[in-house]
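I hope you will forgive my troubling you with a question about protein structure. I should value your view on which stretches of the chain appear to form regular backbone elements. Here, with my thanks, is the record as I have it:
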Amino acid sequence: VAFWMMFEYIHFNWQLSWPWLTLGNVFASHVDWVQWYEYTGTSGGTLWILVINILIFELLIKLRSRKYETRLITATAVVLIVPFIFSFFIKLKLSNRHAGKTSANVIIVQPNIDPYNDKFDASTVSSQLQTLISLSEKELDSNTRLIVWPETALPELVSQDELQNAPVYQPVFAFVNTHPNITLLTGVESYKIYGPDKATKTARLDEKDNNYYDVFNSAVAIKAATPFQFYDKSKLVPGVETLPDFLLWMGAVFEKFGGTAGGYGRSKESVVFSQKNNPYITAPIICYESIYGEYVASYVKKGANLLTIMTNDGWWGNTPGHKQHLAYARLRAIETRKWIVRSANTGISAVINDKGEIVQTQPWDKAAFIKAIVPVETGETFYVKYGDFLSKIAVAFAVLLIVWHICLLVKNKLIQP
């Protein structure tokens, strides 16, 4: 148990991280069972699965030997049933809680643009923007405070310092200026130029002018008469957006499959967006980042009262991937007890409440929007405050086991004749 949990924790924090392997994620479609994730996160689910399997295995061995141990049967029943009971009472308590009141509403846009053929074709950018703006305006009213577009909704690469002046995006700024009460939160492909010095590890050299630059998968908050706020995706997808140092020699291979050898730049930590006269302090979570419980919790530590996920799950095609990605977001809602608005390019876009329940959604492969009054929830859960503490305990215990066995090996060699 300790060694598996140590593997999961290390796997969350190394350069080839793929948290789909986390056992605790399996309850993402059964959130009523794991309302206690607000204390433990997915590491609690991993621990539960492993302990239950060991107990049932031991119980089956005893039963095959016709040995009926009451204590083992009782322990198995208790470990299996108690988390369900605990979850039931937590949800009952939450149902009696009054949500943060607000008259503000959010519009979530799902433009349904093919990422393989249309999205990054420069000739289609204008029509893409028109689709996004048209869907946003359909039910926009005086109480709309936030509009969320998906990852890379602004697909043409532009300097962050020059975004305001980019001709291709003037219709977007005109739309925002027409509705000065709204904040538009959207994904954008962007870059920064550093000059002759390599300012970051991921910076690339433009041999034409000998300047270093970084390319980013970014989020930007746009509001009339307000400076732009940027966040650059930090948790990058291995092989597609970044390569571990030990695989850089395979860069040419990954590029053939649409990946990148140089890798995207990234923010060093999470950032929250807040604007005057907007009740929502948003967490600009970009796609793959929504899989990382502790990282999502870091937004809430910085004051976020709404989790906003911008993603382009169209890369999955019509496979279980996009459904799983949506389901995992439900666990983030439980861990933080914050509502989630999720804008997905080709779907599935959704509004998820603080119990992990999907309250509104739009299906896969459809151009659509969602309008919702989303409550503002404040405060921090135990998990937000202390993170994956179970995993850290497991790591410490696993290290002690390794040291103990090394000591035993040394001792046995020393006492051998």
Q: What stands out?
A: The longest helix spans residues 389-415. The two ends are 36 Å apart (CA to CA). The mean pLDDT is 90. The longest strand covers residues 183-195.
